[in-house]
Amino acid sequence: MKFTNGFWLMREGVRACHATEIRDLRVEDDRFTAYAAVKHVAERGDTLNTPLITVECFSPAEGVIGVRTTHHAGKARRGPDFTLLPGPDAASAARVHRDGAVTELTSGPLTLRMDGEGPWGMTFLDDQGRRLTGVDTKGTAFATTPDGAHHMIAQLALAVGENVYGLGERFTPYVKNGQSVDIWQADGGTSSEQAYKNIPFYLSSRGYGVFVNHPGKVAFEVGSESVGQVQFSVEDQSLEFYVVAGPTPKEVLSRYTALTGRPALPPAWSFGLWLTTSFCTSYDEETVTSFVDGMAERDIPLTVFHFDCFWMREYQWSDFLWDPDVFPDPEGMLARLKERGLRISMWINPYIAQKSALFAEGAEHGYLVRRPNGDVWQWDLWQPGMALVDFTNPDAREWYDSKLRVLLDQGVDCFKTDFGERVPTDVVWHDGSDPERMHNYYAQIYNRTVFELLEKERGHGEAVLFARSATAGGQQFPVHWGGDCFASFTAMAESLRGGLSLSLSGFGFWSHDIGGFEGTPDPEVFKRWLAFGLLSSHSRLHGNVSYRVPWAFGEEAVDVARRFTLLKHRLMPYLYGVAAEAHRTGVPVMRPMLVEFPGDPATRTLDRQYMLGPDVLVAPVFSADGEVEFYVPEGTWTSLLTGELITGPGWHQERHGFDSLPLLVRPGAVLPWGADDQRPDGDWLDGLTLRVFGPAAAERTVCVPDLSGAPAAVFRVVREDGTVRVTARGTDRVYRVSVEGPGTTGGTGRTGEGSGTVTVAV
Prior knowledge:
Layout: E1 4-5, E2 9-10, E3 15-18, E4 21-27, E5 32-37, E6 52-61, E7 64-70, H1 90-93, E8 94-99, E9 102-107, E10 110-115, E11 122-125, E12 131-135, E13 140-144, E14 150-157, E15 164-168, E16 180-183, E17 198-204, E18 208-212, E19 218-222, E20 229-234, E21 238-245, H2 249-260, E22 273-276, H3 285-297, E23 304-307, H4 330-339, E24 343-348, E25 351-352, H5 357-365, E26 387-388, H6 394-410, E27 414-417, H7 435-458, E28 480-481, H8 489-503, E29 510-511, E30 513-514, H9 523-533, E31 539-541, H10 555-585, E32 590-591, H11 593-596, E33 610-612, E34 616-618, E35 627-639, E36 645-655, E37 663-665, E38 670-673, E39 689-693, E40 699-705, E41 711-720, E42 723-729, E43 735-740, E44 750-754, E45 757-761
Parallel strand pairs: 22-23, 22-31, 23-24, 24-27, 28-29, 30-31, 39-43
Antiparallel strand pairs: 1-2, 3-13, 4-5, 5-6, 6-7, 7-21, 8-9, 9-10, 10-11, 11-12, 13-14, 14-20, 15-17, 16-19, 17-18, 18-21, 19-20, 25-26, 32-33, 33-34, 34-37, 35-36, 35-37, 38-39, 40-41, 41-42, 42-45, 43-44
């Protein structure tokens, strides 16, 4: 939200008060509180008839410093609030040091400095004393607008050349500088400034992050009002934000997700190919069986089959009952599908149509959100007369779960938790929550309710969602997908931008609709999207008005789907290790180039390529003719598809067929390569190959996980005296070592096989 009219004036009707000088400072061992006047106090009379802004500075976890600014502290505190997980070492890590007028709060590598003698301001420093950012003279304020609303405002300075990323899954330009961003959930597709997943957290190219701890609407002006500042404001009496230390993006994300929650580890089977009925198409068991048969006949391994909306009767979403005219024997059908080794996903949402029998049941028991006058909140958008489940009511959550348990007992494995964005504000919640704060937060309790049910019913490590909406902390309940994109190359690129932004907002796993959702893709779009989709953390074929079976787009599409599905399965020992890392550390599976190469300025704006884990570079092709331009960081990289060598740093232009794309392995990487290309959750140590890519690092350690994400085997790879020596721990299974790329004799690969220690001459 903008408050100024240019640099000098305020907008008409806006009155602002800015912290100007410190009038009192109260210091404790691990925190301090400053009381800031909003004008210069020259004499005692200046202290009358004027506000103070209370500024509390503290540390909830090592390397994180919080600032809470308050005007009137007496406002009733109505939830919801983000659940934060303070570090166990927060109290011991934070310390306050005072030297004359200067007060410093230090937590790990981060220091907040406040000088009581100069103009109002705060400076955040790294452990080398370098200024990361700071609050300048107008950076702490409150303002009232013509409608009488009261806003708390904060600004943090932008350095020359500094880039800002994140703020959720945003489809606007990847670098957020110059943008106005409202953190407000909306069902707006992927082609506008609206977003399904709004996260009040941004990451800076200077090696820090900022999290605004407010679940309601947060208005960001990223160099778009005061061009040298990131401004954020809330309509409230208090504003709390955290500066999160790096210095690398990985460390920022690790600290941020430690505070807001690390992602659960999805089951390995969920990394396989998902196929759906699509949305508005006609389908029954015969259709479903024909899809499954068609995939098997064409040797395209399929792992999950998803039933979208019309598994239920029209006008009755959601009542969680199969349409008996279309699916007369759902239990038998699911049993037949599961006999073929398939997992089953079902579409659900939190809306209850009036025609559904659940509407009367929910209204009678108080399970539906109500208006202030006691009426059930309803409208006709999406479903006629639909209401909204009140997940703040524990009994409503159990009621909702009871309907899903029936489906789980029938053989369903997971749910696509659609919607959760269009949440009204003219309502009363069961627990008394503030409707404005609940608008964004609703996604959290909705997805948490379903995820925790799956964990309870299916066991720890077996829960997975396909969720569309999210807020801060939503990364704990994977997987999230990119929403309703068009079937075009433009939408394919905007989907990737959204995924990269989400990954820099703390989300470890992300997917999208292969081929696009709206409309029917041209075969060229579908084939290019197949490669991109099957080189994402999760891979789903889904559409709106047309099927997404590969043969609908020609035999070449079948070949492309097969090629990249088999490739993903071979990569699973590597990918699941990366997934386990995301679970442990919060570093995402699909990584913007900035995450792996923060010291390379060329990576800071790249939004058409990414790293799949630490060692595989993916550059999707966004054109029918196969022309692609991509950047290669320093070193000699190896094409995973052809073995060709590409040297960086530098830009490259290539032309690729539909069965290819730039897929490069990082110099010195060791990829654990599976022998089983038919399933994502096989025995990865059976026939394992360690592919050592030159020029090899002096030493690498590679972990191959088991299906729980725990280490099944650890391999130490050492290169010296013209050999590569690999030593295994945790397994006595036979494995193969393949040394590839530059650094081998004559440029050709060398192999060895055995158990324990394997040595290969190169």
